[in-house]
């Protein structure tokens, strides 16, 4: 018989697992890993409301994508265009970034799988006498290691030609040059920290769903057990 068990700790772990998976996925897909040096506005970049020149813009560069400003052929205005600069994996600007993409993708795949499974832990707490919480916590720890490897290798690619074109000639491995780090990089770091927190907290979720109070409610014949 299926017992739906909901506790504060198990629900918090589930929500954190989902948030972490989405945060890492969004960061990976974003082009805001590096914020390039300011590009001066041309004489055509005029603010229609004030009549003055617009502020210089900052192009951004991600692991496989970028955002830059392009001019229209028919109209004297410019729009920011975002999209992948690499049509396939081999065209990613640096071998280090290719390794970063592999490690991050592996970590994100594991996190998304755990996030999907975590939704069903309210009904199923064990498989083959193994606690789902403990298994998911172990997988989150492994995913965290993949994410760390990816984030460590990423700065080693700052010396590639693509990064130099955005960050200037002083850019090199682990040196930003004229660039600054974007929100996607910080989001990936924050998501990695939360991944390990989730891995540790999964043990608390397992304890909460197998507590004496839960067992008492099961023995009383209750199918829906909610403990705050």
From TrEMBL:
InterPro entries: LHFPL. It is a multi-pass membrane protein. GO terms for cellular component: membrane. Pfam families: L_HMGIC_fpl. The chain crosses the membrane at residues 12-35, 96-120, 132-154, 183-203. Keywords: Fertilization, Membrane, Transmembrane, Transmembrane helix. It is found in: Membrane. One of its GO terms (biological process) is single fertilization. Belongs to the LHFP family. PANTHER family: LHFPL TETRASPAN SUBFAMILY MEMBER 2 PROTEIN (PTHR12489:SF19), LIPOMA HMGIC FUSION PARTNER-LIKE PROTEIN (PTHR12489). This is LHPL2 protein.
């Amino acid at each position: 018989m299926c017992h739906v068990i909901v506790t504060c700790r198990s629900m918090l772990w589930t929500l954190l697992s989902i948030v972490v998976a989405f945060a890492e996925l969004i960061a990976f897909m974003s082009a805001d890993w590096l914020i390039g040096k300011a590009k001066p506005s041309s004489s055509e970049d005029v603010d229609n409301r004030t009549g003055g020149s617009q502020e210089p813009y900052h192009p951004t560069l991600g692991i496989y994508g970028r955002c830059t400003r392009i001019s229209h052929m028919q109209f004297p205005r410019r729009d920011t265009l975002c999209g992948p600069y690499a049509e396939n994996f081999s065209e990613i600007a640096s071998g280090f970034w290719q390794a970063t993409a592999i490690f991050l993708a592996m970590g994100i795949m594991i996190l998304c799988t755990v996030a999907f499974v975590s939704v069903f832990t309210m009904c199923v707490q064990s498989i083959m006498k193994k606690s789902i919480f403990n298994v998911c916590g172990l997988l989150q720890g492994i995913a965290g290691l993949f994410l760390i490897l990816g984030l460590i290798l990423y700065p080693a690619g700052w010396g590639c030609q693509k990064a130099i074109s955005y960050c200037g000639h002083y850019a090199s491995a682990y040196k930003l040059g004229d660039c600054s780090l974007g929100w996607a990089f910080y989001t990936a770091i924050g998501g990695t920290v939360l991944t390990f927190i989730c891995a540790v907290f999964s043990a608390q979720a397992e304890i909460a769903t197998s507590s004496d109070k839960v067992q008492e409610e099961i023995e009383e014949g209750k199918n829906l057990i909610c403990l705050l």
